[in-house]
């Protein structure tokens, strides 16, 4: 099959095949994020806690054996001449119980604290990378994928991984403790336990792959079901109008059946594992019982140790079952760490620049002279250039109109001034400074651009005109008057403090464009780029408003780069 076909193949089998390996790198990333202090504390507290728990059971077995020996007249380590004393045993037993309770508390705190530290570190790293990511990242990465990383995956790291990690470590150490006690009580049982351990290894390896894939399949079949249900509720009126109730009901049943099949197979897989772990546990009990009774009959074991070994043997199947299931859950949940780690590795933009703040004039650019030397621009290193070898010289105060058809590179040219595209060849010099050497914050704060698609943020009108709160109210009202929005804003409750909804949806498209023009007036930078800035405004408003806007004292000495498709409209700007 050709390589391109392999890359485009997105069927379920190929997806499941890529999930069959353990995410050891993600596991290492999660554990290393805990730091040098918390990880050793977590491991040491877990080991010490289970050691004390085994010591409690062992001491109770020893207590029982000595008590029985005292009843039968045999020697015991804490017997008195006439009567067996329980006080020494009870004191040590109480001390061990108190230590065990304290260690359980310390272990729980260590697990939760470690989970909190790791979740916080990963979230902050992801947030910093996303904020500093280049614009190309947002163009090529679906918004839903980014939201899922911050919602579902962060929730998995916050809530599920610490609990699963604690359960996995507890079940694993309990299983190892049980096998260690059985081996200590009856050393000959080790020979018989080795084949069972090999069988258990292959069973868990087989189960983990199937369980991980079935859980992923369960999640993937649940999403269409929930989406279809919500879409049906939202469009219920339209569905009834076209009498498509039966069709949507049938589709809902199909999605439900698909999800139920995945859930049933997942439940069946868990039962499959449980049955086989019970078989192995029964074999362990049989081996422990035979070897213990044989040793007890030859007076090599006390009755207390025999009971201790059998008690632990009875719990082996339960420990094995939960250990394997928790391991499968952990593998699936570590996928969230893997996905976050992939985004954290995103290469950030060069925000620092080569020039320090002391090397940049405070009022740069004050003249607005622009030199473009052999500029070539592309959106990504893997794509072809959209502009090749562009050279130009724009004098201070000069007004330039750029005309061209759709896709000719006009917007790409404007984005090059803000370093939002890859200028892999040539340079742009503004007032004697190469913009490639400037910090991004400085560059983008000293230039202004008005885009074809107006952008407003949720907040107030004052915030959208002056986010840094540097201008007086009179300046803001003057900007609104120039943009012919003064009467509109005065009619709103609150005036400049009137609420702007997300994206400015409470204003029309044309009004949002005029707000962007007013914002450009407030900034009063020496270079203003207008990328089809009046595409959403009627010609009457453009004819009267733009002349007032551009002929204002604050704009006469500015450089304008006007980008437009219709040649007749250039006269309105220049």
UniProtKB/TrEMBL annotation:
Keywords: ATP-binding, Membrane, Nucleotide-binding, Transmembrane, Transmembrane helix, Transport. One of its GO terms (molecular function) is ATP binding. The keyword Nucleotide-binding applies. Gene3D superfamilies: ABC transporter type 1, transmembrane domain, P-loop containing nucleotide triphosphate hydrolases. It comes from the Eukaryota. It is found in: Membrane. Residues 41-332 form the ABC transmembrane type-1 domain. The keyword Ribonucleoprotein does not apply. SMART domains: AAA. It comes from Micrurus lemniscatus lemniscatus. The chain crosses the membrane at residues 30-48, 92-111, 178-203, 279-298, 304-324. GO terms for cellular component: membrane. It holds the Pfam family ABC_membrane. InterPro entries: AAA+_ATPase, ABC1_TM_dom, ABC1_TM_sf, ABC_transporter-like_ATP-bd, ABC_transporter-like_CS, ABC_transporter_C-like, P-loop_NTPase. Residues 370-574 form the ABC transporter domain. This is ABC transmembrane type-1 domain-containing protein.
